[in-house]
Amino acid sequence: MRVVQRADDDLLLLAVDEQVTYSPRMAAARARVEAEIAHSLAVANASRTERPLGQATLVTAVCDGHPSEIADAWGKTARNTVFALYDAKSLAVSLRRSPDCMVDLSRLAASLGGGGHAAAAGCELPDLRRVLAEALAARIARALT
Is the pTM value of this prediction over 0.85? Predict the structure, then answer.
């Protein structure tokens, strides 16, 4: 990696080669993000459901951030699959698809009040939050009685 130092002490990256190494600060940031993604993937794996949709499959789950990374990991082995991930961090639904899937997710998201692109879109479903809260209330009420 070649860098140049400016007068204000900022380091600018000029080129990266196979010898690149991270500064301690960058290594810590990378480790933190890798841990966040691993946690979110564990949450998603524990909540994952699958439902056939004609020729395609719908996979839904809850994640704790990083929905694109979850869908990318799952999309490596999935065929003709739409992923709908409820992100507990953003309180929104992230829609992704496996590389071979031709479902237009922008149309799906638009029908749910959201938007995006054919392969990546999203929406907010405030009523889903209410359903989750009601399910939580029912579970807690059963435990209290």
Answer: no
